[in-house]
Specification:
heterotrimer, A alpha/beta (412), B mainly alpha (288), C mainly alpha (307), B: mainly alpha, 73% helix, C: 307 residues, mainly alpha, MetI-like fold, two-stranded antiparallel ribbon, 2 strands, globular
Chain lengths: 412, 288, 307
Amino acid sequence: MLKRLLATASVATLSLVSSASAADTINILVRTGIGAAFTGVVEAYNESHENQVALTEVPFAELVQKYATAIAGGQAPDALSLDLIYTPSFAAAGQLEDLTEWAHGLPYFDALAPSHVKLGTYDGKNYGLPLSVETSVFAWNKDLYQAAGLDPEKAPANWDEIEANAEKIRALGEDTYGFYFSGGGCGGCMIFTFTPLVWAEGKDILSEDAQTATLDTPEMRAAIDKYRSMVAKDLVPESAATDNGSNFLSFTNGKIGQQSLGAFSIGTLVNDYPDLHFGVTQIPGIVSGTSSFAGGDNIVVTKGTPRLEAVKEFIEYMYSPEAQKVFATNGSLPTRSDIAADVLKGLDPRLQVAVDAIATAKTPYTVLFNDLINSSNGPWATFINAAIYGDDVDAAFSDAQAEMQSIIDNAK
Amino acid sequence: MSAVARHRRQRQKFWGGFGYHAFGIGAALFFFAPFAWTGLASLRTGSEAQQPPLPPWPTQGVSFDTYAVLDTFGAGIWQHTLNSALVALATVVLTVIVSLLAGYGFSRYRFPLKNVFFVLIIATLMIPFQSILTPLFIILAKLGLNNSLVGLVLVYVTLQLPFSVFMMRNAFDAVPREIEEAARIDGARDLKLLVRVLLPLVMPGVATVAIFAFLNSWNEFLAALILLSDNDKYTLPVLMTAVRAGRLGAINWGAVQAGVMVMTIPCLAVFLILQRYYMRGLMAGAVK
Amino acid sequence: MTSPALTLAVPARLRRRRARLGQWQGLLYIAPAMALVIVFFVIPVLFTFWMSFHDWPLLGQPEWIGLDNYVRLLTDNKFFTALKFTGYYTVITTIAIFIVAFPLAIFVEKQRRGAGLYRTVFFMPVVVGLATASLLWVWLANVDSGLIGPAIRMMGFGGKKVNLLATFDGAFWTIIVMVVWKVAGFTMIILLTGLQSIPTELNEAARIDGASRWQRFRRLTLPLMRRTIALALILSVTGSVLAFDQFYIMTSGGPQNRMISVVYYIFNQSFVSFHLGYGSALSIALLAILIVLSIVQLRLLRVGDDK
């Protein structure tokens, strides 16, 4: 009751504020460093529209806490750029505006990134729409390939090849490494770059209904062994063991031969590191095939916001060809497949690899994503560090398997 | 005393002094080196900033690149510094006033539940601040003080109270009652008595309380991050969380060094300027 | 304006009247402080207490579940692991701080040239915020861009690069060194006040009686400093039990979750797993533990009273 009382009180103050000015200012919460793609779109919107968008940046680690506290205090922003994997749990908590009717009315609704729409749907209703689309891909440094006597234009096709290449690159010098990953408790980084190794084999860490943990498979063991072996051979920088994601894009230092990274990083590499020559290909499976993680953000709207219409106007602008172009120029993939080809015309061809990855890309659907996977103290992040850097791989498997299952069971 | 004995004594004194200063300098290096290292390293050029600080001083010429990079985070250094300064200043003033009154009350008056009240204030130290964050946020929202620097200041003042009230009570306890009685007979009453007669006597305590209020409000990040929700209102420590989180998948260590310096220099300045009072006040307050 | 010499006896009648009036005046003086404490501390704590009887998700509707959270707490292995780690950390830091701070206090107490300067330098890290200090040391301990690892390599201990934060021992001791660096100066000042309150004649007399330096320290200095030591102890223990920033910033609780302190666990339960209700129950439990710890330590303090 107290909560409702607080809610009405704050709605009253909010409406007082909003009626003061004719044009609305929409508050959108985003993670710090969301990048030029989105801020560019916002700038273009603010220049051409009467309504204005104001961004509040919060470091990624504190974003969810910040938003939830703001809701509890009745001071929530109008909308939020939310990592798409959180959309189910936020929708389940009943805090998001139901956009179903309006969204289905958009002429290009069917062309919107499918995994985003799937994750944005809860109980048959739509609560989130794609804001930015990311897929994970495998990148290699062409200059280092060349220096190591490898063919710089030939993408590695499997992990044995990747390891062999890594060894040659490592031999180039003290500070040159063959491979990189964020292994210091960055669950988000590793679900993004590492699970494709087993997904390509048709295996997964969770069952289809997300009710059973299926971590311990021969494929996962093989994938872990591969990473372990590369670490043991000193092909990976020491810093990888403690990288909690802040240095995810270590590839940019030009001394790392190969790394799995996101489509978004392609934009960063192309725009900010023009001297770095790199190739991009699909992430190979541990035995065969390829796979990818479909990530990125959904835009979600806080339930009951008085500026719903303005937010809708902004979202529609976001999907306009000109805004899509701004996204793509900054390395974010087009969210509309119907105009993707147009939008990508004249841009870096490597982006096409990332767009192609969407076809095989997966995203786990679970309301427990944060608990199970993203939290740097959750079972997945702990498992990665323990299995790759620890002494007891079997224990790492059994501990993580048990812990994941208990989190799932406790939530029932 | 024979010449030999005198000679030995002198030698002993020399080696005693040598040992004393050897220890002192060694320990001082441990405490001072991180500051010196960061300060020097922050003056390196942008390209040098990612290299290990060996040697710490700039080898490619002094530059303020790292500070320029820091300025590109959030709404810029100046805006955040201004916010921090305002918050810190207001916290200092309010903390001093509130704890001065409370310290006087606890030291000089008897009233029902006095001990309960005192323990309640001290108990604020005992709960992890993270635990009451959500309720605090809701209360601030209800008071209309959400997302305002005023609300943040009030929270900071509350967090300062256990230490400050404790200090001020002890400071007043140390003032002989006779002084007060005499002043009363001279006609000084209540607030006038407190401000004109007693305040000068508890100045070291006030300085200590003020410095601690400054340091803690200047450095606090979690409450600022959660309770404020405008980029323009964020304080410096919130800017530092952004620096810490890295940008585009890489931490800029130059910005870290510059940030540490920007955070530290005002604290060191305040401390060095007021340390004479501060040490005295802290000592007087702690003996009790 | 006035001097103590003017002191005169105050008539008893006046004093009684003032006592009655004083009751209200005293309350008036502490009113602002109490208002703040009640609004921003007591009510939030009561609210937290209230929340601890609910299944209170970070988002969504709370639901009354009575004592369930407390029952869960008693069988929660992770809570006890966190408690154990916090205990271990508290003991080690407190010992480390005292081992460093005591000699420093004795050192700066000497009336020698430079003592004041040394005291100032030792105290400098105290004024830096814990979060800033943590960030500074993360940089110093960084394997590629930091100081410690590369310096070790430069001194010729070649081979692999040293990533201090990658192993439990390396990370733990880095944090201990950071905390000692940051806190020792403060403890030093508190101990210094205790040392200075010991009359020099006592020490002198003991010296003439032939007591060795160690004997004087054990039999004279330590017992007389009991209260000061207790104060320093309470501050150090309370600070360590509530430790959070250093683990959050320096190691993110790793490697392999082995550095989750109790407050970190509360933070995770509340804001990562979204179980605010359970997080509240944990907070209340922690509050109880701290109160008990403080009472035990206050007993120590009171022992010092009957000198």
